[in-house]
Specification:
homodimer; 336 residues; alpha/beta; Rossmann fold; 3 domains; four-stranded parallel β-sheet; 10 helices; 12 strands; elongated; DNA-binding; Peripla_BP_I (chains A, B); transcription cis-regulatory region binding (chains A, B); DNA-binding transcription factor activity (chains A, B); HTH_LacI (chains A, B)
DNA sequence: TTGTATGCGTTATCAC
DNA sequence: GTGATAACGCATACAA
């Protein structure tokens, strides 16, 4: 019956149902175009044999893979994994699989870490790029599948983008701090060349300019807890001492708070702090964090939908900007 | 030359190199068995055409997929995503792809959430199961790929297992608390039927028994921050009031600390708390958390290696237990 | 060492 | 509405 080593083929089903393989194929993929009689016979035979289509054969025939590849900078980072969860949602609804490649854990011996070999139409029907630091040349060849950039983006790389409204998010954060009376605000950024940090810096400075203030001082971090903690020292070294910090993500904000606490300083009394992302942990920090909410799973879903849309009609390279919002908690207070 | 819509086939390379397709195939997959001359001609032709093998065709021919599926309970949970990162490492080294399926975000209309359709030899060469709550029947059919269980496990499901030493971890935590003078220790568990919680409970009670104490009181959580916070209330309702809590993961521990802080209680003065996992955030909590370190990426790598080992020799269903260790920080102190 | 020919399991085209 | 059959692109048994 169901032999592990020798699964039933479509031929077996055809024989058992007393029809041709073509009819079985049709009955399975488009039941409407076969006779009731044939359909029932096929269904019965399928049930009896336990037949399931061989996807490799189908994919070869149809010239598609049935999977989408996500290029993520750091799989272990909850920020990205929640976007992946959203991508996974949308793909599953379409019967597609999600392939994941961690671009951080890259092969040091190979140029571009061997990512290139995954960027082939025979490996994935589409690619969602979540890493803004990749070499655009990686994608500049004919066999690269259609692609969408999400969250971060790569200068000089074509394709639709799905982004959070980074500039507005930064503006909301700064306006909130300004409203509380803060004037000397430091911007703790990600890596200097990171596209997110750059666009947020623009939002920061725009908000400051509107208030008639000069651009913010910047401290460069790395989106990590430890870089946030390390920033505490640099922050305290500044004179005059700033009264507020806008951090490019919540993890740095939490790290920073730990660093300040270690120095005996109090948030929000000594420093008001705003984060970005609204990761779940932020509400549970020693001082619940004021932050910018970004709907990560939704962003992932949008990116996947965008990619799937390209299957039918090659869409123009539009950029989709998703709204963000300010979440006020306890880490910000009026300047004393 | 390189036409996006019509990628070069092995035939084109063969023609250009002046050899047969068989020779090209051999030159690419096993260069040692072709003549130097042929090899060079092929290499040249490959470079000229920009040829890359079509993996769908190769896979069909070789009856393999070139990908491993990971079944993860919650992609958005950093605990699992770091295991995935480890799995990804090992797979990449073997040229395999990682397919990810979030079993939480399941299709409510289909029994078993449509997971079954992914469990086919034509979709993956192997499966790594990280979700202990799945129905074992899902895997009980001939076309299910070889499988390894990691981290959690499913009773009644065969296959090698790669687990952390949960029992020892629990014992270390309890012994640490006992050594600090605590006697009334509560165990904040995951869902009652979770295999991790059950084995840790055994470790907890064993350690208590050795000290001549009765089994611990248990509070059921859900491995989430919010369930940890919610546990604060239940904890305070107990009389006599316990002096220490062992939590089945760090997130609950952090949630619990937030809940206790909200009630004006101090850790470790009023309660000593031990977590499990040593997530990165634990070192940055308001009170740095004493916890049990579990090497998650390593666990993922081991699981993947185990799976790959099955490709050659069908190994017996051994269980691999990975060591854990106690990390002492500030959330535990001598009972006053 | 190399080439020829067949098969991997399906779907799609074409006649009927 | 159905059946025979040619692709899909590659790897390998076999013959040379």
């Amino acid at each position: 019956m169901t032999d592990p080593t020798n699964p039933p083929k479509i031929r077996d089903v055809a024989r058992l149902a007393g029809v041709s393989v073509a009819t079985v194929s049709r009955a399975l993929s488009n039941p409407a175009i076969v006779s009731e009689q044939a359909r029932i016979a096929v269904e019965k035979a399928v049930a009896e044999t336990g037949y399931t289509v061989n996807l490799m054969a189908r994919n070869l025939r149809q010239q598609q893979v049935g999977a989408v590849l996500a290029l993520v900078p750091n799989l272990a980072n909850p920020f990205f994994s929640e976007i992946l969860a959203g991508i996974s949602d949308t793909l599953r609804a379409e019967g597609l699989s999600l392939l994941v490649l961690d671009t951080l854990r890259t092969d040091p011996d190979t140029p571009n870490g061997g990512i290139r070999s995954y960027l082939s139409r025979s490996r994935a029907d589409g690619v969602i790029v979540l890493d803004g630091t990749l070499d655009p040349a990686l994608f500049a060849h004919g066999s690269c599948p259609p692609l969408v950039q999400a969250c971060e983006w790569i200068e000089g790389l074509a394709g639709p983008r799905v982004l959070a409204d980074n500039e507005t998010g930064a503006r909301l954060a700064i306006e909130h701090l300004l409203g509380l009376g803060h004037r000397d605000i430091v911007h703790l950024t990600g890596p200097a060349k990171n596209t997110l940090s750059i666009s947020r810096a623009a939002g920061v400075d725009a908000a400051l300019a509107t208030a008639g203030l000069p651009p913010a001082h910047r401290l460069e971090g790395a989106f990590t807890l430890s870089s946030g903690r390390a920033a505490a020292e640099a922050l305290l070294a500044r004179t005059p001492r700033p009264t507020a910090v806008f951090c490019d993500n919540d993890e740095m904000a939490i790290g920073l708070m730990a660093g300040l606490r270690a120095e005996g300083l109090d948030v929000p009394r000594d420093f008001s702090i705003v984060g970005f992302d609204n990761i779940e942990m932020s509400a549970y920090a020693s001082v619940p964090l004021t932050t910018i909410r970004q709907k990560r799973a939704h962003l992932g879903r949008c990116a996947a939908e965008r990619l799937l849309a390209q299957r039918t009609a090659p869409t123009p390279d539009e950029t989709l900007i998703l709204p963000v919002e300010l979440v006020i908690r306890d880490s910000t207070a009026k300047r004393v």
